[in-house]
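Reminder: ligand-aware prediction takes two inputs, not one.
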Amino acid sequence: METIIADTYEEMSRIAADMIERQLMRKPSSVLGLATGSTPVGLYRELVRRHKEQGLDFSKVITFNLDEYLDLRPSHPQSYRYFMNENLFNHINVDPKNIHVPYGHAGDVEEFCEWYEQEIKRAGGIDIQVLGIGADGHIAFNEPGSSLGSRTRLKTLTKQTIEDNARFFDKAEEVPRFAITMGVGTILEAREILLLANSRKKADIIAEALEGPITAQVSASALQMHRHVTVIVDAEGGSKLKRADYYKWIFQEKKRLIPRLIGKVT
Ligand code: PGA
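Here is what comes back for the chain with 2-phosphoglycolic acid:
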């Protein structure tokens, strides 16, 4: 795992955008795994800017989003499909037929989840998966206790997640209690993973996930088993990391070795 401690949210977002851009340069038809939430908004803003100002091309890209609230239609302003349209898809040249966001209004949820898994496989698997982390350690909506081998399925959200997400809804009662989410096992199959976390609110859980034991109680800790993970945090998000100095040192040293090290893993 490589942990990069950026000074600011903007720098975190720029480094993440650099990684996505490099991936698209290597493979224009990349399969991108995308996340919602406040964390990746800066990354999406930067990708949109690069598309508009520098011609970053998404025409061959295929996307899969991590999750969606149950029972929210794509046109619902709090649905994750709506969020993705507003923050990214409407502003880049991705082909709408290459976009996949779990469908919260699926009639047969189990069948839908199986189909979603098959679609990811048919696309050739996810090349790079963007993740945020919840205050309870979830990645996607894999709440504490989620099997580390879990696949796309329906999950019941924790009270903490419902409270955290209530800020986007008029009333806490309106926050959906269930979501369709890729599983931890699904996520671990991505070839490369990019975990982003910013703000003091994430500092404890980031330290637990990266430096604590691997446990189903903190889904993000499963990333320790993946062979190609980059974690990018801002200064506040990384403020509880015990080995922060070492991670910073690695980053500085690696910069000296680039371009020889580009694409290689520590
Ligand atoms: P946030 O959510 O980006 O809004 O903090 C992250 C998550 O819950 O995965």
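The pocket of 2-phosphoglycolic acid is lined by residues 37-39, 132-134, 138 (CB under 6 Å). The chain has a mean pLDDT of 95. We will return to this case in the review session.
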